[in-house]
DNA sequence: CTGTTAGCGCTTTCAG
DNA sequence: CTGAAAGCGCTAACAG
């Protein structure tokens, strides 16, 4: 790997001058410029980003912290982020927490060390320590999916999306609607969606049996188990079931089919996420499209803006959702 | 951001000494070490990776070049790679070509500039220029999914997997088996799978009508179109259809259902990829599991080995595949 | 056991 | 228009 000095020597100029043509800064006479260009061309020289970063404090790298790398949500999000970022010459440094909250903290630190120009954090959870860590981070940072006051956020409208789903059931004449959620420590998916469900039910004067509300852990298997519990323990069997993710819904469908229920005749069902499988289960699953790719793009735009203008006031963007009504209701 | 010098001053020692405790190299007396530790603790100091990289020429970053970021294959692959890499303290710098071959070249360059310790390239295609670029890259590089002589490869056994699928059809009594492929410039998916199909047919003395072989472009839509062409243009309608990817197969299924064909009674069908939707289409799709996550792991291991031992001879790993026989045949 | 010195490759004043 | 010099933050001989 050649260095700027060698290029300078070969072109009989100083490093400074080479640097100038490299960065299009300051004046360089036409022939000197051409001479240098030629040498650069011939040697295939490219300046070291590290040396550059060391001086300029800029890296053109954005750290992206994900809870789980191989989910549809994550990959759509990253696709959206990359779409905007690559256009602006930034690259993504991945950080996968694998749902380990400790790692969120670690990675924020690590990304600081690597001097990334910005961080996009997809949080599943907000706790005191995380907020502290975020607050003492001087790098522009934006959080997707959970609300953190001090920084910019891109949020899904979990509360209203949940209400919309329940409202749909009610329109279709359902009154006994049960719910498969996740732990409420996940504010967005766990708490807000549940609140939406409860509020919508309450507003319509519908009662909710305790056993109608079950919890899973984001996978198909736990959706199956939750559904089983609802069916086995409820004195009054519901006619509709709202699962907070598509995977949970698919698990529920699996259980229902196994027990001979007809969907949607015996039991209507809906999820959230618009995952690809939601189209292919039988019957196709009613769900909510959160447009993760759009979220990724929005986050990336916000971040770049914040990097380039260097301004601080946090912005909050709440994204639209689309209710996808399909044959499962 | 504090620097090593400030820490040194605060602890009344030289930078060298601080560096020593940071890297656990050389001797440092117990109390000096503790004094330094304390200062580091209090200030929350972390050494700059850039300055470090500039000296050591190591970055603990691996560049991963992907053809498309938001596919199941990619995300599984990345999950596998990350699994191994993170364990060894490496991070992933993402490079998404979006199927633009030009970008593969660009990114190899860019990753060099960023001095990544190694590169994992998921290639869809091998052309002269790419091989050249790869050869003049001094950074350890491994290619997944396509064979490139000069470097280590992790390969799927496309040829035998294809034969296995066709062989399955033949066992089930099919003789008129048609094929939906992709362009053969993609050696692995396009060429080898087709060759496997042809060879297996030939070996069993089965003939193939020209119209039985159609091409798509990796999406569901084009699978639909290809299937349509086969049905509409063949004088002798086949009884089985082998699609080189699950998505193509799903497209084909959509067409067949639309036209009232019963699967597998009127038409058997199989794909490759073991994508999640393959389980949920109706009927569940027979497919081949390539275990992308294992491929990612294998690639990461190979790469780390090559980085740490600094040895050159390229290794070739061909992964196993598993035929997943489901109701579509 | 600890410090001095040099230098990684680049950009950026400041003088010509 | 061009160059000299300083320095970004760190590590690695080499001397003590």
TrEMBL record, chains A, B:
Residues 2-56 form the HTH lacI-type domain. PROSITE patterns: HTH_CROC1, HTH_LACI_1, HTH_LACI_2. Coiled coil: none annotated. Residues 3-46 form the HTH cro/C1-type domain. The keyword Transcription regulation applies. Keywords: DNA-binding, Transcription, Transcription regulation. Pfam families: LacI (PF00356), Peripla_BP_3 (PF13377). One of its GO terms (molecular function) is transcription cis-regulatory region binding. It comes from the Bacteria. InterPro entries: Cro/C1-type_HTH, HTH_LacI, LacI/GalR-like_sensor, Lambda_DNA-bd_dom_sf, Peripla_BP_I. Gene3D superfamilies: 3.40.50.2300, lambda repressor-like DNA-binding domains (1.10.260.40). The keyword Transcription applies. SMART domains: HTH_LACI (SM00354). PANTHER family: HTH-TYPE TRANSCRIPTIONAL REGULATOR TRER (PTHR30146:SF146), LACI-RELATED TRANSCRIPTIONAL REPRESSOR (PTHR30146). This is LacI family transcriptional regulator.
């Amino acid at each position: 790997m050649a260095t700027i000095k060698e290029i300078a020597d070969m072109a009989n100029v100083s490093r400074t001058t080479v640097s100038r043509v490299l960065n299009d800064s300051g004046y360089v006479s036409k022939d000197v410029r051409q001479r240098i260009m030629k040498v650069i061309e011939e040697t295939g020289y490219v300046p070291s980003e590290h040396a550059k970063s060391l001086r300029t404090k800029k890296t053109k790298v954005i750290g992206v912290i994900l809870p789980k790398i191989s989910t549809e949500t994550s990959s759509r999000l990253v696709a959206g982020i990359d779409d905007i970022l690559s256009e602006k010459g930034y690259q993504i440094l991945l950080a996968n927490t694998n749902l380990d909250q400790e790692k969120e903290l670690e990675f924020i630190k690590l990304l600081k060390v690597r001097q990334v120009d910005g961080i996009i954090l997809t949080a599943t959870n907000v706790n005191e320590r995380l907020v502290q860590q975020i607050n003492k981070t001087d790098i522009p940072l934006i959080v997707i999916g959970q609300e953190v006051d001090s920084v910019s956020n891109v949020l899904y409208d979990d509360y209203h999306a949940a209400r919309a789903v329940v409202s749909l059931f009610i329109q279709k004449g359902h009154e006994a609607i049960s719910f498969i959620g996740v732990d409420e420590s996940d504010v967005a998916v766990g708490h807000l969606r549940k609140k939406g469900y409860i509020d919508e039910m309450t507003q319509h004067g519908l009662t909710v049996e305790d056993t109608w509300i079950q919890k899973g852990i984001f996978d198909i298997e736990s959706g199956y188990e939750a559904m089983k519990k609802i069916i086995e323990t409820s004195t009054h069997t519901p006619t509709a079931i709202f699962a907070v993710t598509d995977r949970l819904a698919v698990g529920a469908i699996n259980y229902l089919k196994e027990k001979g229920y007809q969907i949607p005749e015996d039991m209507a069902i809906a999820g959230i996420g618009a995952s690809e499988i939601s189209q292919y289960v039988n019957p196709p699953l009613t769900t909510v499209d959160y447009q993760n790719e759009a979220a990724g793009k929005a986050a990336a735009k916000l971040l770049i803006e914040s990097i380039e203008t260097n301004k601080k006031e946090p912005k909050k963007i709440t994204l639209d959702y689309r209710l996808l009504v399909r044959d499962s209701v």
